[in-house]
Design goal:
alpha/beta; Rossmann fold; eight-stranded mixed β-sheet
């Protein structure tokens, strides 16, 4: 990668500038995920309510107006409509599904984003609609869910699907993909710490300070996931002990798992079962 080679060279003479460049690369969302034909009807049925996050116009979506909101958080380079198979089933159970296209994703503005922008959107949605009955998060959205819960967002339960738990492992994957040097990773870490505080990879991980999150957690992950290693689900259950449990699937990968009927059944059963069982 030509850009990666240039940033590697820059790190030798100007580490701070290399850190800024790597941070920009890390936060670049890339091509927008398209709206699929199978999602169009559900997507069109939503009430759209724009908000502003870090100067970017962010679209939020609400299906219904009942008092039991469930927040759906999509992953990186994705969109709210990816939950199309789940939304009608939540409504049938009396929940009000709410989601958003993060900056740089779907119909929202911008080209770059980060976990803290996700959290800001989540906070604004909670301010408008109240505490969530539950949060269901896919992939990168899981990291953002944990971060939001530690930052005061309230929810009754959390379901992660193909969820990221270890942020540094995700950063390392980006470093490898972009062919960046260890010197650039150090510069990227320093840049991230200057913006968001010390030890950013640890603080951004879903397993950080588990004692601050007191709610039942279900981690669903496919054993053949090639995007997010299924070991992330094991880290979640290890960190949260008795309040978390894990379900493994096979043959669904990272994306198809969101529409699998058995996976949706498991998530909805978890949301509706008595609290003593969920815990």
């Amino acid at each position: 990668m030509i850009i990666g080679t240039a940033v590697n060279g820059l790190a030798l003479v100007a580490p701070a500038l290399a850190g800024r460049a790597a941070f920009g690369m890390f936060g670049y969302v890339g091509a927008r995920a398209p709206l699929r034909d199978t999602e169009a009807a559900v997507h069109a049925a939503a009430t759209v309510e724009p908000i502003t996050v870090n100067g970017k116009r962010v679209l939020t979506y609400r299906w219904g107006d009942g008092p039991r909101p469930v927040l759906l958080i999509h992953g990186w380079q994705s969109r709210a409509s990816r939950f199309a198979a789940l939304i009608p089933r939540l409504r049938a159970l009396g929940y009000t599904p709410i989601s958003f296209d993060a900056p740089g994703n779907g119909g929202s503005g911008g080209r770059f984003t980060n976990a803290f922008e996700y959290v800001e959107a989540i906070k604004q949605i909670q301010h408008r609609h109240g505490p969530f009955e539950a949060i269901i998060a896919h992939s990168f959205g899981a990291i953002c869910a944990f971060l939001a819960l530690r930052d005061g967002v309230r929810a009754g339960r959390l379901v992660t699907i193909s969820g990221v738990a270890d942020f540094e492992q995700m950063a390392d994957g980006f470093i490898r993909l972009a062919r960046l040097s260890p010197r650039v990773k150090a510069a990227l870490t320093a840049r991230t710490a200057s913006l968001f505080g010390p030890e950013p990879w640890q603080r951004l991980s879903g397993t950080h300070r588990p004692e601050q999150i007191d709610l039942p957690i279900l981690a669903i992950h496919d054993e053949g996931d090639r995007v997010v290693d299924p070991g992330h689900a094991a880290r979640i259950t290890e960190a949260y002990g008795a309040q978390a449990r894990r379900i493994g699937t096979t043959g669904l990968g990272h994306h198809r798992i969101l529409a699998d009927p058995a996976v949706l059944d498991a998530a909805l059963n978890f949301l509706t079962e008595p609290s003593t069982q969920a815990a």
